[in-house]
Specification:
The chain has about 130 residues and is of the alpha+beta class. It has a single domain, classed as Ribosomal Protein S5, domain 2 (2-Layer Sandwich). It contains five helices and five strands. A five-stranded mixed sheet has the order 1-2-5-3-4. Strand 1 and strand 2 form a beta hairpin. Helix 4 runs antiparallel to helix 5. The chain is elongated and about 70 Å long. The N and C termini lie far apart (about 80 Å).
């Protein structure tokens, strides 16, 4: 039995980490064993993860399996989007890299929640009120 060749890709956003096995051929994408449409059921979320495929004009030409850990739904979705864009670039750099760059899909968004500091009022930057006189 011969194993199928795949491309491994990884993407992060906030505290979410997405890894992917990217295959050539028609099929559907799965996230943690579920269909991607069931994992991200909101309509506007479905438009986000299809951005790399639409930018590369390759809807329906590939399939893959995502493994997503950490974060919330939006962070996970954006990690999936970055992972998919990176996988397309690994598949064919000359064709897909300019398209992904043009659509701003390879830019890593490193913003994350600021940690809470000790001795303060519970949030990252909130301070105790000082007396007036």
């Amino acid at each position: 039995m011969r194993k199928k060749k795949y491309i491994y890709s990884k993407g992060r956003r906030k505290t979410a980490v997405a890894t992917m096995r990217f295959y050539e051929g028609k099929g559907e994408f799965t996230v943690n064993g579920k269909s991607i449409e069931k994992y991200f059921p909101v309509q506007r979320f479905q438009a986000v993860y299809q951005k790399p495929l639409a930018a590369g004009k390759c809807l329906g030409k590939f399939h893959g399996q995502f493994e997503v850990r950490g974060g919330g739904p939006k962070g996970q979705l954006e990690a999936v989007c970055l992972t998919l864009a990176r996988a397309l670039v690994k598949y064919n750099e000359k064709v897909y890299k300019p398209l992904m760059r043009g659509a701003n899909l390879l830019t890593v968004d490193t913003r994350a929640r600021e940690r809470r500091k000790a001795g303060q009022m519970g949030r990252a930057r909130k301070k105790k009120q000082s007396p007036r006189r």
